[in-house]
Design a protein that fits this description.
The chain is about 60% helix and about 10% strand. With about 160 residues, it is of the alpha+beta class. The longest helix has 25 residues.
Length: about 160
């Protein structure tokens, strides 16, 4: 549980810090970091890729429903350090974006990839994507991460 909370708070803290720095230092400027990345401030009133832009209630309820469904699923399984780390990244990113969306009505995005012209993101988005990718990797290649709690409890009794 401590690993989960530590990763979640670190992801959320890094996201909040980068959003504060972006809003204070970047403003309307565009900063090129080579050909790979640009920093530019945008306000996303939707979800990923701007989907459901302006639909405030859907942007609040849908992420809550997904996190709730994920929590219901994950509580069936024995927690390993790998799944705790993965879920911590997802949870930290979720809280970082969700809090800003709830308070301001939008999420501040600042990381732009010129070779992906449809994609602007922030640190929370990267944490969520990386955490989900780690969970997918775990599902495919780490069966020990997906042992049901009831099964392991029965095995311990025998």
């Amino acid at each position: 549980m401590m690993l989960f909370l530590g990763i979640a708070f670190a992801a959320m803290g890094l996201d909040v810090l980068t959003k504060l720095l972006t809003s204070q230092l970047l403003g309307e400027k565009i900063v090129r970091l080579g050909w790979l990345i640009e920093l530019r401030q945008t306000q996303n009133t939707g979800m990923a890729f701007g989907m459901l832009s302006g639909q405030w209630l859907a942007n609040i309820l849908m992420p809550l429903a997904v996190v709730f469904a994920g929590w219901m699923l994950m509580r069936r399984y024995r927690v390993t350090s790998f799944t705790a780390m993965s879920c911590g990244l997802v949870a930290g990113g979720f809280v970082g974006n969700f809090a800003q969306r709830l308070l301001l009505g939008y999420v501040l995005d600042m990381i732009y990839f010129p070779w992906l012209p449809f994609f602007v993101c922030n640190v929370a988005d990267i944490c969520i994507c990386f955490g989900v990718a780690l969970l997918a990797f775990s599902l495919l290649f780490r069966p020990q991460d997906w042992q049901e709690k009831t099964r392991s409890a029965k095995d311990a009794q025998n």
